[in-house]
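Quick one: structure tokens for this chain, please?
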Amino acid sequence: YVFGRERKEGTDATLLTAPVQRRSFAVAKMIVIAVWVLALTVFAFVFQSAGMALPGLPGFAARHLASTPAQMLEASLRLYLSMPLVAVVARWGKPGDRKPMIFAAILNVIGMMFAGDQAANLVPWAMPILIGGASWMPITKASLNATSWVISAAVFVVGMAALMWKLGRGSDAV
């Protein structure tokens, strides 16, 4: 949405008149997405915890709250690290926000396909499922390790490089 909507609405032309490199806009937008992801993660934690604690649902234990924020933050960070790829898709072809949403949904499906596999810790889109689990299927015991982080970081770096290359081309708007 952050990268695709401006092209669709035509507001990207206004941004191009600013004396700032296009790549700076991309970095700023990625920071906005990071803040948004963090805010949504905190929001989800607070309301999920309250939703379980207030009615006194069976199975809720306050001791689990201590590890939950770290797990949610890690899962959110791993999802965030794939966002530059979604931004690249948003910049390709005709303007609009459906294409990146469909691409993100496809990545999510890929993650679900691999979540039960022994190689799930090598698939960036399966990693958040390994952290949080899934109610619809048993999750493999593949553990996330340093290699998982290297893969997630590599996806981010490749995505940012592709985005910077795409935005560095003179014919493409912000």
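The two ends are 13 Å apart (CA to CA).
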